[in-house]
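Ligand: nicotinamide-adenine-dinucleotide. Inputs:
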Amino acid sequence: MNTPLAGHVAFVSGAGTGIGYAVCRSLADAGALVALNDIDPDAARDAAARLNEGRVADAVRAYPGDIADVEWVRATIDEVGARLGGPHICVANAGITRFGSFLDDEPTGFDRLMAVNLRGTYFTAQAAARAMIAQKIAGRIILMASVTGIRVVGGLGTYGISKAGIMAMARALAVELGPRGITVNAVAPGATVTERTLSETPHYERDWGALMPAGRANQGSDIAAAVRFLASPEAAQITGQTLVVDGGWSLSGRMPEGY
Ligand SMILES: NC(=O)c1ccc[n+]([C@@H]2O[C@H](COP(=O)([O-])OP(=O)(O)OC[C@H]3O[C@@H](n4cnc5c(N)ncnc54)[C@H](O)[C@@H]3O)[C@@H](O)[C@H]2O)c1
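Predicted complex:
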């Protein structure tokens, strides 16, 4: 088996289901040891157990906790470093989606979204960068943006604002961390079939697939492939970029009926 990430430790947030889970699978398949985070402790433990099936050792370990809790994030990344080493790779994937109009918005929902999507991503990246610098690791930080940070999707204003911020974050951190040997990039998925998106919209895959020039909606594995590339030795000279993975959707921005 080809294991280019053997000897590397990856921390992946929000990975009990969906895209983060697919990322953990891909990184573990490439030989990495994976610290899998989710706010839902059962989801984190179940996901780690499923991903370890058929592997020699426990390649994936569960780290349940809320990524918006900065003290918890700092302590956990320190613990990962002490127990497993690294992290050499940090995938700040955890993010929440919230629908609603600007004129009806209230601070509570806005603050929680920003606490997870922006503040959580920012301080996860910071904790990982500090650990990488302390251990002289030429690390990889990958942030999870979205095409809603590029094209406006009705009802997802605050979400899109947070994701545009994440793309700016990748650029800002890349400049500061470049001299330390660390790259920082974002991945911007388009419509991706996950447990959550299917539960919100039963015909999600069909509706979005019909609007994507590539002719199908994303699967989690499409996003995981982009993350794995950015985490690989081949991507050493790529930093501050946002890699859009959307089958070409953002080129036209066409929306399904009823959105
Ligand atoms: N699915 C898509 O179509 C899509 C498109 C563009 C961008 N994204 C982004 O990709 C990332 C993953 O998306 P998804 O659809 O797989 O997510 P999801 O909604 O399925 O959530 C994945 C996991 O994150 C966990 N989580 C939620 N809040 C958390 C927190 N505060 N701390 C730790 N874990 C938390 C959830 O319990 C869940 O198991 C998100 O940042 C999302 O914004 C998704």
